[in-house]
Write a structure and sequence with these properties.
Length: 295
């Protein structure tokens, strides 16, 4: 069997320090969390940034730059995966739903990918979902997705398509057919988000059956099913993801002390099932990154 690529999503947008005081918030903390996850076995770290003073999600280029520079000068061989998900949320106001209400961060695809174009990580996420998510409407129109994909490819960055429901995979098939998405493809199946794929074996099997042939794929479960869905992804032949974006608990009632502990537990599950964790070099070869590696 090929080795399993383990990704660590270190902070995300929804967990807060009220959920777990160990959640990384500042650029230094986020970078340190990535480096610690790499030492525990993660080949890839998926990165969001936050406002250091409040812990709220941020899209500021300066924070992304700080995190990326810290990782790149740390001596780790970690593959950097920056999110391009923020910037697609529309919160309709109560008085006039055609007008954006508080919490809206809907911006152009160019703004959503500014940090990708400038910092050129090896991978970045490309969300294909349009759904009700986290109390608001997430909108990723085909037009905007195409613009974002074009900018990613032009920057030499590999998009990781995040799919939350079956319709996202229908869109993906259309984008492959019209040439927007280019081989070799990489997908991340998201389960456990309300109104999307549930965290069940049946849902993950459906998603896997709809993937384009020959692609590499990973999957994860948000919340209390994070580790069960990690095992399910491995069993079905996929790669795996864990991290404090997805769960802030090491076990029921046990807060994770850090992202590295989550990675260590995930690696233990994979090896106990007979797998082997991929090194960053092996991950690059499998994902077609080795020839275009950014320094």
């Amino acid at each position: 069997m090929k080795p399993t690529i383990l990704t660590c999503a270190v902070t995300g947008t929804f967990p807060t320090r009220a959920h777990n005081p160990a959640l990384p918030v500042t650029p230094a903390e986020i970078a340190d969390a990535c480096i610690g996850a790499a030492k525990a076995g993660a080949a890839i770290c998926h990165i969001h940034v936050r406002e250091p003073s409040t812990g709220l999600p941020s899209m500021k280029l300066e924070y992304y730059r700080d995190v990326v520079q810290r990782i790149r000068t740390s001596g780790t061989d970690l593959i950097i995966n920056l999110t391009a998900g923020p910037g697609g949320r529309f919160m309709p106001s109560d008085d006039n739903p055609a007008i954006a209400g508080p919490g809206t961060n809907f911006v152009s695809p160019e703004i959503r990918t500014q940090h990708i174009v400038e910092l050129k990580p090896e991978i970045c996420t490309l969300d294909l979902n349009t759904n009700w998510f986290g109390g608001g409407a997430v909108i990723n129109s085909p037009r905007n997705v195409k613009i974002m994909a074009e900018r990613m490819y032009a920057a030499g960055v590999k998009p990781e398509m995040e799919v939350f429901d079956s319709g996202d995979l229908v869109l993906a098939a259309d984008l492959v057919a019209d040439g927007t998405l280019k081989q070799p493809l990489l997908f991340q199946i998201v389960t456990g988000i309300k109104y999307g794929f549930p965290s069940t074996p049946e849902a993950m099997m459906l998603a896997r059956s709809m993937l384009p042939k020959g692609c590499e794929w990973a999957a994860f479960g948000a919340g209390r099913h994070a580790f069960t869905m990690l095992a399910q992804a491995y069993i079905l032949g996929g790669h795996c993801r864990i991290g404090m974006e997805d769960t802030v608990h090491l076990a029921k009632g046990t807060p994770a002390p850090d992202n590295a502990a989550l990675v260590s537990k995930a690696a233990g599950i994979i090896t106990a099932l007979g797998g082997r964790i991929a090194t960053p070099s092996e991950a690059r070869d499998m994902l077609g990154l080795a020839k275009n590696r950014k320094t």
